[in-house]
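task queued by scheduler; priority normal; single chain, no ligands, no partner chains; default sampling; output format set to structure tokens
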Amino acid sequence: MSHADETELLRLTHKLLDAVVEHDWPTYASLCDDNLTCFEPEARGQCVTGLAFHKFYFDLSAGSGPRHTTLCDVHVRVMGDAALVTYVRLTQRLDSDGRPATSAIEETRVWQRISGAWKHVHFHRSAPH
């Protein structure tokens, strides 16, 4: 694995998560393949394909308050034109009573180099046990 690939994948993963926190749909969509697949709690055990499912949540969550994201235990593995980025994402926010709250979720992001650029093609999110 080249250090440049690892650095770029971490930069893109942070940019993707910043887009989620900031409800920046154009940036999120530009980083994702149109046929993005995922398993996540909101999908109730189903593998979701495409971006429409995610767009719905971007539209709903506008104005949900300040958030801060920290990635822990980050690992990057490049396998030719595909890569995995795994981590635990801690999200800090204010709860409904205005008190600080932190949630954790385990994430695996799969990136693929398509036409020379990394695209987000699959992810899996689950609550830690």
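post-processing summary
- The chain has a mean pLDDT of 93.
- The longest strand covers residues 100-114.
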